[in-house]
């Protein structure tokens, strides 16, 4: 498994028709590429976690200017085989190392590979621990 620390945008806005389209249109206009995202609604707000291939500074500023509430944080992007048991191995290894996973989401890159994004209690240590997981890479 390959794990890298990445910057993540956390974006909030009123949950109204077209909010997601408006958000992602702002990013396309900057020429940035979204490699993973998670979106949900809670208490009348739309929430998005977004990982970009590009640095987050320009997109963050543009989204704030467009009226979105934006925060940045770090997460771990884990590239791994898309096969039974791979996610169990990842989560069990983190648990055994006393690393709490606060948030996670995934996207498949192909039938063979998956990208799992994790926010943990210690991203640097988690990245190190993930590198020790045998096989399933």
Structure write-up:
The protein starts with a strand and ends in a 7-residue tail after the last helix. Helices cover 28% and strands 43% of the residues. By secondary structure, it is of the alpha+beta class. A 6-stranded antiparallel β-sheet has the order 2-3-1-4-6-5. The chain has 2 domains: 7-73, Alpha-Beta Plaits (2-Layer Sandwich), CATH 3.30.70; 75-130, ACT domain (Alpha-Beta Plaits), CATH 3.30.70.260. The longest helix is centred in the middle third of the chain and has 11 residues, at 86-96. It has helices at 19-28, 57-65, 86-96, 123-130, and strands at residues 2-14, 34-42, 45-52, 69-81, 101-108, 113-120. It has 4 helices and 6 strands; from the N terminus they run βαββαβαββα.
Brief characterization of the structure:
The chain has 137 residues and is an alpha+beta fold. 28% of the residues lie in helices and 43% in strands.
Backbone structural class: alpha+beta
Order of helices and strands: EHEEHEHEEH
Q: What would CATH call the class of the largest domain?
A: Alpha Beta
CATH architecture of the largest domain: 2-Layer Sandwich
CATH superfamily of the largest domain: ACT domain
Q: Give the beta-strand count.
A: 6
The percent range for strand residues is: 35-45%
User: What is the fold named in CATH at topology level of the largest domain?
Assistant: Alpha-Beta Plaits
Low-confidence stretches: none
* Count of folded domains: 2
Helix content: 25-40%
Question: What is the count of helical runs?
Answer: 4
Instruction: Give the overall shape.
Output: elongated
- Strand line-up of the largest beta sheet: 2-3-1-4-6-5
The main pleated sheet reads as: 6 strands, antiparallel
What is Rg? 16 Å
Q: What's the rounded overall pLDDT mean?
A: 91
Span between termini: 4 Å
């Amino acid at each position: 498994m390959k794990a890298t620390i990445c910057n993540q945008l956390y974006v909030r806005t009123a949950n109204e028709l077209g909010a997601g389209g408006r958000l992602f249109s702002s990013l396309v206009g900057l020429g940035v590429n979204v490699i993973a995202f998670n979106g949900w609604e809670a208490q009348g707000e739309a929430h998005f976690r977004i990982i970009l291939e590009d640095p987050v500074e320009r997109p963050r500023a543009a989204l704030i200017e467009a009226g979105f509430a934006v925060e940045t944080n770090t997460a771990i992007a884990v590239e791994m085989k898309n096969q039974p048991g791979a996610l169990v191995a990842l989560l069990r290894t983190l648990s055994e190392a006393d690393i709490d996973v606060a948030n996670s989401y995934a996207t498949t890159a192909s039938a063979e590979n998956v990208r799992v994004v994790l926010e943990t209690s210690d991203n640097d240590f988690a990245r190190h621990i993930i590198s020790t997981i045998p096989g399933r890479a």
